[in-house]
Amino acid sequence: MAAALLPTTTLGEWALCTYQPEPPAVLFPADGQLRLFGDSGFMDRGGISELIGNAEAHQDARSIYADRIEYDEAQGRVDAFGNVQLDVASELSITGPEGFIFLETLQGEFREAEYFLYPRHARGEADLIEPRGENRTRLTRASYTTCDPGRNDWLLRASRVDLNQETGRGVARNAWLSFYRVPLLYTPYVDFPIDDRRKSGFLIPSFGNSTSTGTDIEIPYYLNLAPQRDATIAPRYMQRRGTMLRTEYRYLTSASSGQLELDYLPNDSVYNDDRSLFAWQHRWDISPRLGFSTFGSTVSDPEYFDDFADSLNITSATHLERRADLNYRGNGWSLLARAQDYETIDPSIAGRSRPYKRLPQIQWRSSGGFAGSDLDYRLDAEWVAFDRRDSLTAQRTDVTYGLSWPQRAPGWFFTPKASYRLTHYALNNIEADNAFASGDDSLSRALPTVSLDGGLFFDRFFGEQRLQTLEPRLFYTYTPFRDQDDIPRFDTSRFGFSFDQMFNEQRFSGADRVGDTNQITTALTTRVINLDSGIEEFRASLGQIHFLSDRRVGLGSNQIETESASSYIGEAAWRPWRSVSVRTTAQWDKNWEQIEQGTTQLQYRPDQQRVLNLAHRYRRDNQEQVDFSAAWPLGSRWTAVGRWSYSLRDQEDLEAFAGLEYRSCCWAVRLLGRRILTANTEEPYNEGVFLQLIFSGMGSLGDPLGELISEGVLGYETDY
C-alpha cells in the first residue's frame, strides 16, 4: 500500500514543530580517503587502530562519531562504541550504543538504535538498523513518524522497514498505523515516500457521507508508469448508488501534456441506469510556432453533475464544450483552425436554443506598423461553418481591416482609428427556419467604423507621500445603420455593460450584428498612489455614453433604442490599509433613478491564513445575492473556515459550508459540513459531512478538502 503523496516539503509544513534540526554538513571532499580523529589513539602490528575520546571517522559523505572507535584496516571495518552517531549524506542519522560498518560494502549493524530522516522530518526506533549499501537501510521491529522527539501522536510500526534513498521510498511489512495509540489501519505491506518522488501503490482511502451518495468510500491505486506518465484507478463505493470505477491517466513530454478521465457506475441503484463521465485535455507544441490543443467532456445523463459534482459552478452547467485548436504564430500574425461543439445537458434547452457547432472555424489575426510612420494596421479575418441538427446552417466569412494613428505624450494621448468590416453568409437548409425560408441564401453586409479616443493626465502631490491623478477621457465612435434583420444569429450576443465596454466600438460579440453607433463617451478617473510603497490606495471612475442618434440594430426586430444617454457607470477601489481592499461597481439608471446592477466586494487579508470576504451582487429584477467566506486562525493550531452564498431574490441557500481545521507539528484534521444547491427538484440540496485526517510526510485519510476550501474562500492558501 502506498501513502498519498504530499507537496514538496517546505518549512511551512513543519512550522509548528519545536524540533528543527539542521542536516549534518559533509565536512570533507568525496575523495575516498578515510580520516580518523580522537583525543588519543594507537595502532598495533595487526593494523588495528583505536581512537579514544571524541573519536571520529570520515569518508566521503559519511561520518561516524563515538566515545571509542576501532578500525581494522585489513577488513575495512569500523566499530564504534558509546554514544554512536552515523551521518549519511546530510540526509540520514543513526544513533545508538554501538555498531559497526564495512567501508567498502557500506554494510553494518546498529542495535537498539534511533534514526532521523532530515528531508521528511521523520524519525523512529528499531531493534536493529542495518546499512545495506550506498543508499539502502533495513530496520527490524521499527517505528516511523514525523512528530517531534518525545511525541508519537501518530506512529507506523512494522516488523521490517526498508528505506531506499536512491528511489526515495520506504517499504514496511506487517504495519500498523496508530493515532494517539488507537490503531487505525493494518496492512501487511505499505509503500510510503521518504522524499517527493512517486511510486506505484495504493493511496490511503478517502471517505465521506452525503445525501446523494450515502456513505462514500474511495480506495485509489496509483500507477507510476514512467517519470512522465502516471495513472490512478479508484473504486468508489457509494452506499445509495453502488460502486463506481474512477480512472485518470496523465502524461507529460518535452512537447506535450494531457489528461484523460473516465468514471463509470454500472446500474445506479437510484437512477436505475448506467452512469459515466469521460473528459480529456491535451496540449502539443508541434514546433516553436505551431501548437495543437484539445479538451472536452461528456456525461451519460443530464443529472450526472447534480448527483456527483462538488461545485456549484459544475452543477449549474448547461452545456459541455468540446474543442480542438491548431494554432500557428508568425511574426506579427497568427492563424487558428478550430473545431468546436457542445453537449447540452440541460433538458429544458432544445431545438433552436442549442448552441451552434463550429465545424470548422479558421481565424487570421495580423497587426503591425508601417515603416517610417506612426500608422498601425490590423487585419482580422474569419471563415466558419455553423452546424446544428434540423436547423438553418451557414458558412460565414468575416473580414475587418483597421488603421490607427496612436499619439502619446507625458500628459495626454490621442488615437484616431478607422476600420472597414465585410461579412458574407452562404445559408443552407433555410426551409428549416420560417423566418428565413423565403429569403435569399446568400447575404452580405459591409460597414465602416471610425473612432477618436483621447485623454489628459493631471497629477499633484497629495500630502508628502501621495500622488493624486485626474484623468478625463473622451471617446467618440460612429458606425452607420444597415438593416440586419435578414441575417440569422449564430454566435452573437450583447456585451455586458461595464466601464471598459463604454470604450468599445461594438455593442455585440460575434459578427452577426454590427451596431449602428453615433455616440460620445465621457469619463473621469482619479487615483491616489502611495509613492513609498507604489500601492494604488484609491481609484474611482465615472462615465456615461451620450447617444447622438437612435440605435436601430438589435438582436431582434423592431428594437429601436431612443435614449439620449446611457446609465451612469461607476467603479471604485479603495485600499485604506495593505490588508484591506474594497471594490465596487454600479450602474445607475437615470430614468428610474435607482441602481440597475452592481457588485461590492470587501476583503480583509492580513496574510494567507487569515481572510474575510464579503460580496453583494445585484441585477434589477433578476438577481440579488450575498456571499460571505472566511478562514481565520483560532490560535496557532485551530482555523475556522466557512462560506455562505445566499440568494435574497429566491430566499434560498446557493452553497454553504463550515468547518474546522486543527494542525499540529506532524498531523492535521479537517471537519467540514457542506450544502450545495442542485437542479434536482425532488432533492434540491446535496448535503454532506466530510472528515480528512492528514499525516504530515505520510498521507491522509478521508475526503481531500484543501482544494474545496481554497476555491470557496477567495485568497486563502494552504501549504498542506
SSE arrangement:
Layout: E1 34-37, E2 40-43, E3 48-59, E4 62-72, E5 77-88, E6 92-102, E7 108-117, E8 122-131, E9 136-144, E10 154-164, E11 169-179, E12 182-193, E13 201-202, E14 206-210, E15 214-218, E16 221-226, E17 229-238, E18 242-252, E19 256-265, E20 275-285, E21 290-299, H1 304-308, H2 312-315, E22 319-329, E23 333-344, E24 357-369, E25 376-387, E26 393-404, E27 407-409, E28 412-428, E29 442-456, E30 458-461, E31 466-479, E32 493-494, E33 508-509, E34 517-530, E35 536-547, E36 568-577, E37 580-589, E38 594-607, E39 610-619, E40 623-633, E41 638-647, E42 652-663, E43 667-677, E44 685-695, E45 699-702, H3 706-712
- The poorly predicted ranges are 1-11
Main β-sheet description: 26 strands, antiparallel, barrel
Structural class: mainly beta
Number of alpha- plus pi-helical segments: 3
Helix content: under 10%
Number of strands: 45
User: What's the assembly state of these chains?
Assistant: single chain
What is the C-alpha radius of gyration, as a whole number of Å? 34 Å
State the separation between the terminal residues, measured CA to CA: 21 Å
How much of the residues is beta strand, in percent?
over 45%
Average of the residue pLDDT scores: 88
Q: Shape, please?
A: elongated
